[in-house]
Amino acid sequence: MKKCNALAVAASCGFLFLGGCAGKVPDDAWPGYRTDGKGQLLKTADGHCWRTADWSEDKAVPECDVAITGEPVAEQEEEPSATEVAPDIAAPEPLRVTFAFDSAVLTDASRIALKAWYQNVANLEEPVVEVNGYSDPLGGAVYNQSLADLRAQAVATWWQEQGGSIATLQVEGHGEDTAVSGLRCQSVSAEELKACYRQDRRVELRVQ
């Protein structure tokens, strides 16, 4: 009789022990994936889910295997702040390039200056660029007008060779009008005259 009671007690204890262990096992909400014991998926530092040995494709879930399920997890898009406004891009300052006496050929220095100015204009939206050619007052007015036209066209041709569709060009020659040398060249010697008028042999560019 005592022996039977002892076995019954032992069996009862064993049953309670097993029942207690079973009660601590959480419900497996994510079969095939490791969880933290609270039903939350365990993930690596880069956001990948840990799979268990019994994982199979039929257990794939969007949060872990979008490529398999084809059901991407919806992500909340961040709305742009109302205070964020794209900064205005200022047009570059007007540019002046000069030419040698009686020449409409761009110098190396002029090409370098034009390249830098062109790149700044390329950042603008649909700019319109004025290209105005001039000459010095030496020689006849008709010839100087033709030379001014050729200088303006030389700059316009260079512009088009760069891929000039970035801007609309307005090209015009003004001859010897609007000299920038002023009256100071009237008092220099004949040998110094060409050098004095150098700034008048020019093309000016500006963004409207």
Write a structural description.
The chain is α+β, with helices and mostly antiparallel strands and 208 residues long. It contains five helices and four strands. It has helices spanning 2-23, 66-69, 108-121, 141-161, 190-196, and strands at residues 95-98, 128-133, 168-173, 202-207. A four-stranded mixed β-sheet has the order 1-4-2-3. The longest helix has 22 residues, at 2-23. The radius of gyration is 42 Å and the shape is rod-shaped. Mean pLDDT is 80; it is low at 1-27.
Chain-averaged pLDDT: 80
Rg value: 42 Å
Distance between the termini: 113 Å
- Across the major sheet, the strand order is 1-4-2-3
Strand content: 5-15%
| Helix-and-strand structural type | alpha+beta
Main sheet?
Answer: 4 strands, mixed
* Element order: H for helix, E for strand: HHEHEHEHE
Helix content: 25-40%
Report the uncertain regions. Answer: 1-27
Number of strands: 4
Assign an overall shape.
rod-shaped
Number of helices: 5
Based on the model shown, name its key terms:
single chain, 208 residues, alpha+beta, four-stranded mixed β-sheet, 5 helices, 4 strands, 11% strand, rod-shaped, disordered N terminus
Please describe the topology of this protein.
Blueprint: H1 2-23, H2 66-69, E1 95-98, H3 108-121, E2 128-133, H4 141-161, E3 168-173, H5 190-196, E4 202-207
Parallel strand pairs: 2-3
Antiparallel strand pairs: 1-4, 2-4
